[in-house]
Amino acid sequence: MTKCFRSQIALAALLACAGVLGFSQDGAATYKAKCAMCHGPTGTPNAGMAKAMGIKPVSDPDIQKLTVDQIAATVKTGKGKMKPVAGLSDDQVKAVAAYFKTLK
Question: Which region, left, alpha or beta, applies to residue 43 given φ > 0 means left and ψ of -120 to 50 means alpha?
């Protein structure tokens, strides 16, 4: 096996792993699957859900002030009527929190 061929195989393996890791950390997909049903697809919950659960829209100044770490902590531990979100890795929690900050 030539050195060039081995380098190409190593590069292909590295790119394949990076693609898998990038997919698993997709904050938008995690938000859609785990959060949008209550918080709304754009970060604005429907009026009934907002009233019943006390959910503020992402445009609320108090929500805008939250850091990614604060949002991630809420996802992991819950807050008020919101239960902790189960089944997410730390990377997924961080990615969904970062995605939530991009919503306006």
Answer: left
- pLDDT at residue 29 greater than cutoff 50: yes
Task: Give the whole-angstrom CA distance, residue 5 versus residue 63.
Answer: 52
C-alpha–C-alpha distance, residues 58 and 42, integer Å? 8
pTM given for the model: 0.74
> What's at 23, amino acid-wise?
F
pLDDT at 104: 86
Per the CB < 8 A criterion, the answer to whether 19 and 88 are in contact is no
pLDDT of residue 16: 45
| Tokens representing residue 53 in the block | 């659960």
Q: Which two tokens stand for residue 91?
A: 């990377």
| Domain 26-102 of CATH type 3.40.50.1220 | no
Judged by phi (left if over 0) then psi (alpha if -120 to 50, else beta), residue 98 lies in alpha
pLDDT at 46: 94
- The one-letter amino acid at 31: Y
